Amino acid sequence: MFILLIALFLVKVPVPFLYGLELLLYPAVSWFVYYRYSLNHAVLITIIASACGIFIWDKSPLLALNPIEILLVGWAASKSKWPAVIWDLVYWLTIGLATFYTTYQWLTDWSYHNTLTIYMFSVAGGLLNIFIGRIAADYLPNTDDGNRKKWRIGRISFHLCMVLLIVPTIIYLLMSGYYTYQKSLDEISTRLDTLYGQVNDRVNNMNETELRNLKVRSAVQKASLQSMFSRISTGTDVQLTLIDTSSNIITTLESNIDEYVAYDWKARGTVKQVAESLYLWQSDDIPSYNKVHRWSNSEFVSVYSLERLPYTLIVKQPATTFQKNMFNLYLLSIVIVGLSTLISAFVAYKVTNHLSMSITGLGHFTTGLPRRIRMRESIEWKDSPLHEVERLRDNFEDMAKELANMFHEINESEERLRQMVHYDTLTGLGNRYSFGLYLPSLIQEAEEKNTKIACLFIDLDRFKSINDSYGHEAGDAVLKEVGKRLKQYDTDQTKAFRLSGDEFVLVIHDPLPDDLLQWAQSVHHQLSDTVFICNDTQIQIELSAGISLYPEHGKDAQSLLRSSDHAMYQAKVSGRNRVKLSSGSNSGFPKRGEAE
Amino acid sequence: MKSKFYYIINLSLIVMLLIASYLYGSHVQSRKTTEPDHQKDEWLAANEAKQEVVLTIWSPKPMMEYEIQSFQEAYPNITVQLTSFENEPRLSEHYLHALAEGNAPDLLVLPQAMLGSVNSVDLIADLTESNLNLELFRERMGEYLWNIHQSLDGKRTIALPYEAHPYVMYYRSDILEEKGYPNEPEQLAQFLSDPDQLLQLANDLKSDDQWLLQWDNDLITLVNNGQFIFDRDIEYQRESDFYRQIIDTTFKFKDLSANISIWSSLGQEMIRNNQLVTIMMPSYGDDLIAEWAPDQEGKWRVTRLPLGIEAIDVYTSTSLAVTEHSEHKAEAEKFLQHIMATSTVLNWLETADAHPYLGNQESGKLYMDIIKENLSTAIPTPLDARLFDVWNTSVEQSRRSNYTVEDAIHAAKMDVMDITSVAQKQLQLYIERSLQ
User: Fold this and answer.
1) Which of A474, B176, B240, B254 could bridge to B181 as Cys pair (CB 3.0-4.6 Å)?
2) What angle do CA A433, A439, A445 make, to 5 degrees?
3) What pLDDT sits at residue A404?
């Protein structure tokens, strides 16, 4: 309701320019409503305000076209990416042009005066109202601030440019219009006074015959006076009329006037005093809402009495010349503002590039910065021409480097810990913990895919005696060498683990070798090589291994390992340094260590 | 859905607003004020009652005794007071001064030479606003008389002709017949339209001490007295082939005239002695000749002027105008209507009976024909007043100085324009503007 009241106020009180031009700002309220609320609300407010303007406050019926403009432009803008200003321009070049032209011509009896000026002014007014509505919607406080779109610096700079351009222009036009009008009145008064002085002197210097001919309204004398009127008003559109005491026309420069009808300069018009001896006459034949058309037919009038005869000289200065001059200034201003708007848009674009883009760029490459640092993504630190943005960028870069170092150290610690948890520190092979995670998951996958797994359990023969004979360091060297040799089997298909002491496991999954036992023996052969320890001491490695097969020898990790362990035991029992295939039964297994 | 509903409502409201605005705009435009018709009622006789009214008339000479008497018998409540200014040398000035000061009479009798002085002033009433049947008068008087009684801008009728005297040529039919020349009026007019035949006749007559003209410059004088100088566009009219022929013929009339005036006793004696065979004068001349030479009854005839000259005497022809200040326009209108219906002097309206002095020739019909057939486009203008004398003097000086015809015509125009060119241009512009 408050918004509607503002719209009604703006209909009733337009911004007055000179010679009938008015700037109606109530569509700005409609555009504000459009941007803040909805198109329907905006159109409804425009309809109500226009109707009140036309039928209550005697505004031009042209106002009835405003709801159409709001409706079409608002609808088009809501359905496209183009802003309403662009659509409004399209509207004024098409539908607006046709409807405005037709309506205005109809309202002014199809006279073509000032149509271009009014049209241009309407176009400028339409665009200005959208601009004002947009600014109000963007920057006025809102009860629902949480949902309001954030301001963009490019748009702010454009809006700022436009405000700095338009507001002073309007103020300048209003102020200069006021002073120009006052100056025009002074100029007109002086001009009319001068003309009166010349006519009065001429009559004062007439001889008796001329005076008598004037009294009888002789054509010769009237022609002589008329010739003088024409001469003294050459170069102007001033009209002089001399009438006698009965208002009979002695002579006149006015055209289309019946000389034989009593002359009344006030007839069919409204008269207003605008200066000390200057009156403004405006035709009552033209409806008051057609202010521009009314002004174009208005006249400034001064009335003088002659000294020698009781005659009255009426001097009229049509306002149309002054109106045209002022309208030319307005048109020029509109064109300048239009061009300046394009320049502002360009400047705003450049500012967006240099200022907003710098900040936006900074925002872009700081977005997800911790994640990108952690993921070790490359970050391109673009230079900015702006000092403040450059400093901010440097700070971010330093901070990012610090963060990257921190993440690197953390990753190394994590890796070391992971190595310690999952790998045997002596051989570098996966440890029992790692094996305990790997084999069940492999079995689960094999179960799902219906594939096979083989588990080769390896135990060094007489390792205890190595420790006893050469010391634990030699034992460790042997284990390292075995681990090293098993490393070659640490591939995508096979994985090697050290479970404990001298126990190793090699797990292989599909596709298994055709001859699994032969493969196991080849592994056995690879591992059973001489190990050189210090002082060129050679130790021949021997080992026993048992191989079990999933699912034949065990359907879970524990039973599969046990089957291979059992097969290894069978190898030890049967003479060591060999490979045995699990027989499938785990029952009657000797306790671990009995075969050692 | 709700949004669509509001959308339709808004569309409907827009359509209603457009229709209402159209109706409102149409209504406001139709309220424009219209100019009320000006209907002058001063010509309407508000006082049909028997209120005594004195109708004042100024005239250049005593006249209209019969008409005034019969009018007062018809309208006993209207007293007509006619004031004659017979010896007033500056009649035009006197009239205009009275008009300027607002003490002019109700009616003015104007020599037609004065029409130019009053057809451009606004203080002469416009008879088109009266109830007179002007179209009927126009049909009867012919276009020439009608035109010279219009205002300078042609918008108003400022007077009606009372007397109109065309210049004619009275001639001795018996003498011309005796000399073997055509003696029938139309045949003679046709014969004398040729300048050489006119000179031949003059020479033949001279050999017998008989004369065609009173003075050598008679032709110039009568055309100057019978035609105006400017047309309605205020364009000078006296440099046409017609004027060229008249001046050329006049320049050849050396020692071919009697060098005597018929207004003198010697001149009238020459008439009686059969020495003046032709007399060119206004149409009232038949009665005068009959008075001067009663013994020659039946020997005189009348015909058109030689060389096809068309002229109506502007000094003896008179017109009646109503002044704008008159408070008795209705009565003045009645008087004009009475004059038009009853006057016997109204020779542009009434055809006189066959004249016995002219051998029962129907001279009235001839006069009327001459008036109605006048094709001159020249009209009276306010510039005329001094120009008749200026032009006549200029041409006469050229004749005496043996100028060529072209030089004479050019000199006459220059003499006229020296006086009036500025006023002519101003007047042309004024009329052009007033007719826009």
Assistant:
1) B176
2) 140
3) 81
* 0.80 surpassed by pTM: no
**What amino acid occupies position B294?**
P
Chain A partners of B13 at a C-beta cutoff of 8 Å?
Answer: 44, 47, 67
Chain B residues within an 8 Å CB radius of A215: 99-101
B152, B434, B435, B436, best to mutate vs chain A, most A CBs in 10 Å: B434
pLDDT of amino acid B1: 59
3-state helix, strand, coil in chain A (%, to 5): 60, 15, 25
List of residues 6+ apart from B225 with CB closer than 8 A: B167, B311, B313, B314, B315, B388
**Position B86, amino acid:** E
CB pairs under 8 A between A and B: 123
Contact between residue A213 and residue B96 where contact means Cβ atoms under 8 Å apart: yes
Mean pLDDT of A82-96: 92
Q: Cα separation of A484 and B338, whole Å?
A: 159
Confidence of residue A595 (pLDDT cuts 50, 70, 90): very low
The pLDDT mean for chain B works out to 89
User: Closest by alpha carbon to A290, among A22, A13, A8?
Assistant: A22
Instruction: Find out whether the peptide bond into A168 is cis, omega within 30 degrees of 0.
Output: no
Q: What angle do CA B170, B175, B176 make, to 5 degrees?
A: 75
By DSSP bridging, strand A299-305 and strand A278-283 are: antiparallel
Strands B78-84 and B53-59: parallel
**Residue-level pLDDT at A139:** 86
Nearest-Cα distance to chain A for B25, in Å, is 7
Over residues B247-273, mean pLDDT: 93
Asked if B382 lies within 8 A of A260 by C-beta distance, the reply is no
Q: Does B195 sit behind a cis peptide bond, omega within 30 degrees of 0 on the bond before it?
A: no
Q: Once rounded to an integer, what is the mean pLDDT over residues B204-229?
A: 93
pLDDT of residue B18: 86
Q: B436 vs A256: CB contact, 8 Å cut-off?
A: yes
What are the structure tokens assigned to B382, written together? 């306010």
Task: Give the mean pLDDT of A213-227.
Answer: 89
Rounded mean pLDDT of A306-313? 93
Task: Answer yes or no: do B33 and A260 touch at CB < 8 A.
Answer: no
The secondary structure of A263-323, three-state, reads CCCCCCEEEEEEECCEEEEEECCCCCCCHHHHHHCCEEEEEEECCCCCCEEEEEEECHHHH
Q: Give the pair of three-digit tokens for residue B250.
A: 């006049």
pLDDT at site A196: 96
Q: Which residues of A touch B38 (CB under 8 A)?
A: 261
